[in-house]
Prior knowledge:
The complex is a heterodimer. Chain A is mainly alpha-helical. In chain A, about 40% of the residues lie in helices and about 0% in strands. Chain B is of the alpha/beta class. Chain B contains 28 helices and 42 strands. In chain B, strand 24 and strand 25 form a beta hairpin. The radius of gyration of chain B is 31 Å and the shape is globular.
Amino acid sequence: MQQRVLTIVLLIAIGLSGSLLVAALSVWRLPDNQQGYAPEQPIAYSHRLHAGDLQIDCKFCHSAAESGRFAGIPAAEVCMKCHRYVTAPYDQTLQELKLADKEGRSPKTIISPELKKLYESLALDEQLKPIPGGKPKPIEWVRVHNLPDYACFNHQAHVSVGVKCQQCHGPVESMERLAQFSTLSMGWCVNCHRDAARNGVNGRPVQASTDCSVCHH
Amino acid sequence: MTNFQGDMNGLEAAVRPNSVRPSEGAVPNEALPALNRRQFLEAAGFTFTLATLGGCGRAPVGHALPPASLPDGAIPGNLRYYASTCTGCSAECGMLVGTRDGRPLKMEGLPEHPLSRGGLCAVGQAQTIGLYDSLRLKGPLLGGKESDWPSVDKAILQALKQLPEGRGSVRLVTPSITSPTLHAVIDKFLKSYSDAKHVVFDPVSSSAILEAHAATHAARVLPHYRLDRADVVVSFGADFLGTWISPVEFTAAWSSRRAPEADRPKMSHHVQFESRLSLTGSNADQRYAVRPEEYGPLVARLTELVASRAGQPISESLAPSPDERHANVLENLAERLWNARGKCLVVSDSQDVAVQRLINYANHLLGNYGTTVDLAQPSRQRQGQDRDVEQLIGDLRGNRIGALLVADLDLLHDLACFPDLAEAIDRIPLTISFAPRVDSFASHAKFVCPAHHPLESWGDSEPIAGLVSLAQPTLMPLADTRSMLESLATWSGTPTSALDAIQAHWKESFFPRRRIEAVTSFHEFWDNALRDGFVELKTDAGPNAEFATSAVKPLVVDAPSESFTVVLHRNVAMPSVLHAHNPWLQELPDPVTKVTWGNCVAVSPNDADQLGIHEGDIVVVASEDGQSKVELPALVQVGQADGVLAIALGYGGKGTERFAKIGPQWIGAKDSVSEEGLVGANASGLLRFQLNSLRYQRSGVSVTKTAGRRPLATTQRYHSLEMPREIAPRGAEHREIVQHTTLAAFAKNPEAGAVEHHVALEPQLWPEDHPTPGHAWGMVIDLNKCTGCSACVVACQAENNVPVVGYDEVLRQREMHWLRIDRYYSGENDSLQVAHQPMMCQHCGNAPCETVCPALATVHSSEGLNEQVYNRCVGTRYCANNCPYKVRRFNWFEYPHPDLRQNLVLNPEVTVRSRGVMEKCSMCVQRIEAGRIEARGKGLPIADGAIQTACQQSCPAQAIVFGDMNDPKTAIHAAMKNPRRYRVLEELNVRPAVSYLRVVTNRDEETRRG
């Protein structure tokens, strides 16, 4: 009798710890799973502001996504398309304009500390003029999405058949600091490929192979 | 020791909390913890858990550094091609430079180029590795010490101004320069000195051909040989498919006449007389092994026979009659040539001007001038004047030279036959080398002004009169180097950039000669040339002097000698010592001997028997006077004439010391260099001048066997298609790996030569296991076009990040080339037949490798490819054991990549494999994927020919067809229906996706030889 109770208790304990383990695994990451990785970046760039509030299209900055293997982190020059004119948050600029108006002087250029880093990387001074003898330096962004060397992912192949950026990268437009949304594990890739081969992408039939060499070569 | 202590301390700390247990006894010594079994297990378990938890952590932080500004149109990671000109040798073929993220990675042939027609040889493709060579000079050297350009320029200008009395001569020594702009700059530089001369010294000289034309046609030119127009080709020693003048062009032209069709059974007839077995001889329809001294009498007799047919019989005999055994041969050959007059070609690489004059006469009588021998647009690929070189040596010895400038050759290496030259050079007040690495001459030079790598600088070239091409830089110079053109311009007092100089010269000289009149501005003319890589110009009519029959004189023929004659030749993989720094070329097996890592002395089997020489025995070859000798391992080479020794030049160059430790270093590893510390040995000590021309053969040499041995690192050990009788099943002694027929048999039955299989192909073991509903990738290789030139081997190596393994690993048969070229011999003596067969993964439908892999690391794709998945492979090597074609390669080591700059050569589209995994030809699956994505981006199906494998793209003979076998409109679909098609080891029923087209030799007999 006592033994039976013990057995039952033991079984319950094993079951409980088993379910705890499963629960824990779903919260924890498997080795090499970088899901949720959101490192601090050299410039506190906000996707929420640019892609969310300002509704700038992803491919405006990541233009190679349609035509190349990498979507590409835009060159600092791309930022300058807007930030040649926008040098600080709107309210700060407005405040300065009002102040200058009141004091009867021409407004000063206000440069936000984050954008200052951008201008420094392009060797531009406070007036956005090239610093004589200055040499542009790339910004050292911390890489968020990183696949192992033996896996080849091509953006063009996916974007050109209509896969939405958010399908893999998540709601980037709501992220203040960019985080890895998906697991980027092989199982996750294959699941989507199987689904796409069966159901197509956005209702359009596509060829989504699960041959090994599609990604591993 | 400190590390060990540190580890122990850490272990102690980890163990300490649990270590004092009364029941187990206390720690006896404070300094060293005594571990009992239990404690050890506890510590080990703890460590293991920590390691596991540690493994769950984040991957190391990576950075992404986008460029501050991106060039227009550049897409990160995408391949972009730039049309350019290859400067690997003076043939100057058209080239496409594939660059990725600003890095030149893959050299390919330029399909529109009129000479090379899309082919590019092994040497041209291996150039990238020289670009990323971290041992290249970083800047100019002054007296052996690093310096900077302003001080070097100042010192040189001062030295040029103050040349001592009686030593005022300025000499610039280069090989043939095809660049018109560089010629102009050189002329301008030399004009400012009273006694200045440009000495053109071709280490591979064709001086005799130019001299002969000076005598017979009153123009010192090298004709442009048109093999694409020749029905009959007779070559006396000229290795035109391998190393002679312009091999890629000649291969393309020759192979265009080697594709008989069922409804048009016609092809060219190629006869080769040669002393060693060259690549060209191995592809000839009929080949005769003769001593080099016999070329003269043979050519003379042939000329006489042709002359009598032409109705201009020569009364006086031109030379003693050749050997009896060739009497009939020459008679038939003369008949054949006469019947194909105007559509045949006789060539020779003889450096005897008298022989070349007879060759000219034969071609003249046969009406070949104006058809197959083009003098209207002569070649500029060889301009060397051996007489000038001889003169230069005299001047050097006589201390008459005040300034010596040497570019693009290693004077002391190539003229090692004059051992006193180094001393004479040391006495010259001003010596300048343009070498990118410190070679033999540069180590004696006062100044080394390293030139850019060709991929870093602007250049132009005119290989054939009227065809000018551009070479454009594809990246900024990696070091503080300067092109020779810019250096010379600076010293002339008119510093200019190479681009400005070229544009100015083109505007002045070429723009007015443009063919397309619609192009009205120079800007447009230049842009077109830059886009296309080349431009064709109007030319003047060539020399129209009457053939000077007076130049046809009887030959002076040396009495046949009983001693040995040494033939000094070039290897396909090593056309010049300038490429000796290139590990890809050092490890590229010679197409015929299959030897890697160094040269050897090839000996005929009869001579080897008599002298008791075996392969790998070190022998000494010495000249008659004993002054010059070379010590090298011997190779017993079938097809070589008796009494002939053959040694490749271009080896043993200074700088090859770097390869001592190239392969994986383990306790049993042998160095890739010989005892002298170099790869191979320099045989140019055996060169000599005779009658004003540099001779590549020398009679009266002796060969002696020493006690030493150095095994030759060959990639093929078995040379016959015959199975040894003791293991062959009855009736299967001859294996039809390479199928063969003759033109006579082919004309009767296009399927002649097919083999009936011993094993029934039905039923299937795996019926329709691998359906390929979409694409079915396949390849067809025309063995009749393939010459074995090995361009594809290097193409594959560059494309697929194939590592270099070194001499010792090749000896252990662990070379890693995904694509090898098998070479088989059959027959003997004059009926020797050589077959070249590119062999790579056959992508079997019923792949034997797939069924035995326990890790499912090699599987079948839905498009018929046999995939190797590196990250799944655990290295059991079962697959390699079960592969009937033996094409799988195993990574026995982590092939080192310690040199970060050298690693820039790696193709980022292909995984760099690590130790313990199997690899093999993937049929360039990365190119298939790229082609698919490209087509998908446009919303179109994949066009036929849009995807080319690396081997196919560069093949000078265009012997490889790749495509979708399911699509009835593709080229491969047509090739699959070719009656010559067969599959290797078809009887195994593995159903390979690679098929071959049978060899057809142009012979009248209907049965195979041998």
